[in-house]
Amino acid sequence: MNSYDVAVIGSGPGGYVSAIRCAQLGMRVAIIEKYATMGGTCLNVGCIPSKALLDSSHHFEDAVKHFDTHGIELPGEVKVNLDKMMQRKQGVVDQTTVGIDFLMKKNKIDTYQGVGTFKDATHIQIDGEIAIEIEAKHTIIATGSKPTKLPFVKVDKERIITSTEALKLTEIPKHLIIIGGGVIGLELGQVYKRLGAEVTVIEYMDRIIPTMDKSLSKELNKVLKKQKFKINTSHKVTSVTRDVDAILVKAENKKGEVVSFEGDYCLVSVGRSAYTAGLNAEAAGVQINERGQVEVNAHLQTTAKNIYAIGDVIKGAMLAHKAEEEGVFVAETIAGQKPHINYNLIPGVVYTWPEVASVGKTEEALESAGIAYKSGQFPMRALGRSRASMDLDGFVKILADAKTDEILGVHMIGARCADLIAEAVVAMEFRASAEDISRMSHAHPTFTEAIKEAALAATQDRALHI
Question: Which residue among the candidates 59, 299, 444, 465 is catalytic per the annotation?
Fold first, then answer.
């Protein structure tokens, strides 16, 4: 029987990163993955393929709508080759997953394909082509999540689909109905909207991206409506039925009236749920809560002291970079170090265009906690860089403590905000004040100038360019 210092179950961003860090710290490591390729949801059917399609569809939209304005003339009609677009997407995925294989070999990590099942707290049965058992002093559960299902909706994976199927459609929907106005639904909705589909979003809450600052929800709603999205908030879906190629969705609006939506595809995108099937966690003394999540303490330790859990399978935001931070945290904890994660400073991003990004406290959270704050906001359209690139939508908003000026939250929507948010994370990690940012030189012309201007607006109400 092969024995290891650490076994990692699941090879998503949290799992493979934790395995690498454990190996760097001198441990003998095994990683177990039930699928044929490594990388988990993110690399195979999540973050990476969706961004590939977002980029391809963005190029198409630019060619159709904006090239002429830029003085670029094409010889004929611009058309979508969906098959080729999907091939490129798969090529990006394949290249990335092969990169994970390389990292496992480079770090001398043993890989096992199959379902990892606990026999007890130190022994794991791996059911693959050949059943094998390994021994591990420590185990890290990194089994991730799966799309959440609505109990009254039968997902047939043909016309009534999840994000997994939406990433490999063989035709562009005529009318895509999306249940859920969160990150995944809006990103995939924008892909197919750009390619020519009619898109209708049905959201149970009173706004889209409901976990983010209300001002971001309002601005993104305005922008998407300008892009001809049909957005229906405060709608409770009651049924989804299929008749050959036709989908009928019924919902109740906030007045209690029943309204109907007809399309040819329905994407069920109401979040994700922790995935623990097949673990046999109870045999190892690992407690699973009523939501299917693994219970952990502040050290990410389960009820079995030698077993840890990270990423989507535990409480908290379901983000690849959060899982990575937790993977490193656990590896260093096992090694006897004293690592730290500041969960308040893990940014959230929506990769629509314009992009949406946020870190720290929202205005609603500060008001609820009774914290006095000041706010500074600057519109993207006031930037020379925005006018040059024709990316005029959005703003940057900085929330700072009313007394100390410490930055408490940064919320932005606009071009390249997925990258811009890192400046806010760094500043807040070092407990910078809004004035600190306002006095730092920002290259001109860039989108980052909006951060400086918002900081000026927050400190002295003296943004320079509005």
Answer: 444
**Mean local confidence (pLDDT), 50-66:** 97
Smallest CA-to-CA distance from 107 within 187, 178, 8, 175 is with 8
Domain contains 466: no
Tokens coding 253: 């609006």
User: Rounded to whole angstroms, how far apart are CA atoms 64 and 62?
Assistant: 5
Q: Is the bond preceding 354 in cis, omega lying within 30 degrees of 0?
A: yes
pLDDT of 304 > 90? The answer is yes
Distance CA 164, CA 169 (A): 10
The yes-or-no answer on residue 299 being catalytic is: no
Q: Distance between CA atoms of 56 and 389, rounded to whole angstroms?
A: 18
Q: What is the mean pLDDT of residues 245-263?
A: 97
Calculate the alpha carbon distances from 184 to 229, 257, 271, 319, 320 in Å: 15, 27, 8, 12, 14
Are residues 418 and 370 part of one domain? yes
Coil, strand or helix at 463: coil
Which residue segment(s) compose the domain that 415 sits in? Answer: 345-460
Domains contained in the chain, number: 3
Per DSSP, 359 falls in state E
Residue 140, phi then psi, degrees to nearest 5? -115, 115
**Alpha carbon distance 369, 363 (integer Å):** 10
Model pLDDT for residues 412-431, shown as the tens digit of each residue: 999 999 999 999 999 999 99
In a domain, 152, yes or no: no
Residues 208, 223: Cα–Cα separation, whole Å = 12
Is-contact 192 172, C-beta < 8 A? yes
Domain CATH number, residue 250: 3.50.50.60
Core vs surface per residue 336-357: b (16+ CB within 10 A) or e: eeeeeeeeeebbbbbbbbbbbb
Task: Quick: pLDDT tens for 9-44.
Answer: 999 999 999 999 999 999 999 999 999 999 999 999
Q: Do both 299 and 386 map to the same domain?
A: no
Rg (alpha carbons) of the chain, rounded to whole number: 24
C-beta of residue 247 within 8 angstroms of C-beta of residue 240: yes
pTM equals 0.96
Give the phi and the psi of residue 216 in degrees, each rounded to 5: -70, -40
- Percent residues over pLDDT 90 in the chain: 98
Average pLDDT over all residues of the chain: 97
**421 plus 388 within the same structural domain:** yes
Q: Same domain, yes or no, for 311 and 429? A: no
pLDDT tens sequence across 157-193 = 999 999 999 999 999 999 999 999 999 999 999 999 9
Q: What pLDDT does residue 460 have? A: 77
Tokens 């969706």 belong to which residue?
A: 50
